[in-house]
Structure of ATP-dependent Clp protease adapter protein ClpS:
Amino acid sequence: MEFDIKSTKKNKIKIEKPKNFKVLMYNDDFTTMEFVVEILSTIFNKSIEDANKIMLEVHNKGIGIAGIYPYDIALTKLTVAMKMASESGFPFKLTVEEE
């Protein structure tokens, strides 16, 4: 059997980078600043310095970006953070939004 390379079609597969999503944190009057820093450092892998900067942004502006990730990772981090907040008795709110 002969194989004619010229007569075969080349299959081109277009691979796109996954879209990124922002995990947004919202300020409230009950969740402590220390808890927000703990969430940012443990779940979102921020340094203590960066976690404090983000926490202050959330505190002063009412909203801040915890991180930017592909959708599945963003949703997982949000879920873990909200579960941790619920178990600690805080009404901490996060959302995922397309970048």
